[in-house]
Target: Polyketide cyclase
Amino acid sequence: MYIILYVIIAIVAIFILLALIAPKKYQVNRSIVINKSLPKVFQYLKHIKNQDEWSPWKKKDPDMKQEFIGTDGEVGFITKWDGNKDVGLGEQEITNIVENECVESRLRFFKPWKSESDAVIKVEDVGVNATKVTWGFSGVNKVPVNIFMMLYDVDKHVGKDFEEGLASLKKILEH
Model:
């Protein structure tokens, strides 16, 4: 009887310890330089519908169902998607636009798991007809998800998708 009690106490103690030391936040971003003027790059990027042309997730499910609410390129615009197991079910809402600097949005995922993240696309002038684009997202891992995230490298997994998307974006904007 005491052995079972000690095992349960040990499991609970390990769980609490892991919950305390596991990462509470995550952040992933990647950058690329595009040989085009900053205003032209920004005008393209602030329209979320344009992501369909370069997003790695659209390539993973070109037949995903999409719905658009509001005016694209303005705060409050929402795009909703319902796709295969690779893209899931979710929505993205533009929450802030700083002209020729950044587009911020809120990502809400409902399937295959429920989560929320803050996404941003930033642009920076790095020379004549050269614009650095940084694309990323961040969020909070709640317990017990933060424990499982100790075994899953978000940066490695999602980072390669960001790199692929930025490479496609560069190809589109430079041609």
The beta strands are 25-34, 65-69, 78-82, 89-98, 102-111, 115-127, 130-140. DSSP finds six helices and seven strands in the chain.
